[in-house]
Amino acid sequence: MIGIILLLLPKEIIEYRAKFGFFNVGKIVLENKGIEWVNGRPAYHLRMFARGGALGIRLYEDFHTWVDTSTFATLRFHKVQREPGWNYDVVIEYRNDTAYYRGTKNGEPVNLKYKIPRGAMDFVGMIYFIRKRGLSPEDTVRIPYHMDGFSGTAMIFVKGEKECKWLKRKEICWSISPIVPVDRGKAREVLKNGGELLISSSTFIPVKIKVGLKVGSVMGSIEKITQPPQ
Q1: Are 202 and 4 contacting, i.e. CB atoms less than 8 angstroms apart?
Q2: Of 95, 100, 104, nearest to 75 (Cα)?
Q3: 34 burial level (CB within 10 Å; 0-12, 13-18, 19+)
Q4: How far apart are CA 97 and CA 87, in angstroms?
Q5: Could you tell me if residue 1 is inside a domain?
Q6: Domain of 99, in residue numbers
Q7: Where is 15: in which H helix or E strand?
């Protein structure tokens, strides 16, 4: 059984088994790769990786983010997505009030920039921000946000609670669904169409990640946690 650890531990890896209905379709991984320096500032290097497929469709997503260790503002984000008809490999540099996009989309060069709020976070960084900060049912946390060309204020709050079992624990978990700006400033839930992020109320570790699709949903259930020696 893991201990109750609210700190962000370098080299911690959380693995999830991904299922589509009754079918095992792959895995999802959250990883804290440690502290690195980006533009002269210490940053947590965090990763979300997903790979799998169903019904003949193969998916691959690999997101790396570097966030300031004191403010959790995103400094750099590297996004790789490979799906049928979609091949995206872009690095985003967050600099003060501007985000610079460089890379390729379906073989074509990407060279864009967007105005962003100072201290903006990305979605992967938000998951670890919750882990470090903590959350209670009474909280509504507002943070500056930028991802995929959209900027504004994101809101994080507890939608409800339910009893959950994970690894060798049994406890109350909280269902949250961050609301972020998309579509020219309009806000919507990140995990729409039946999606859900279920976090432990004691450790704030994501226990389940459910992503709603046009047909059905993919559920990632925690399977293993690898933590460095204490």
Answers
A1: yes
A2: 95
A3: middle
A4: 28
A5: no
A6: 13-225
A7: strand 13-20
pLDDT digits (tens, 9 = 90+) for 156-208: 888 889 899 999 899 999 988 777 766 554 555 454 444 678 999 988 899 98
> Which residue bears the tokens 């370098």?
10
DSSP class of residue 34 equals E
Q: Is residue 8 part of a domain?
A: no
Write the single-letter amino acid at 65: T
In eight-state DSSP terms, residue 121 is: B
> Using alpha carbons only, how large is the chain's radius of gyration in Å?
17
Compute the residue count for the chain. 230
**CA dist., res. 104 & res. 96, Å (int):** 24
Helical segments of the chain, H only = 123-133
Residue 55 lies in a domain: yes
Residue type, 214: K
Look at the chain and report how many structural domains it folds into: 1
Residues with Cβ within 8 Å of residue 159, at least 6 apart in sequence = 174, 175, 176, 177
In a domain, 5, yes or no: no
| Residue carrying structure tokens 């959350």 | 135
Tokens of 100: 């610079």
What does the pLDDT average to over 41-50?
94
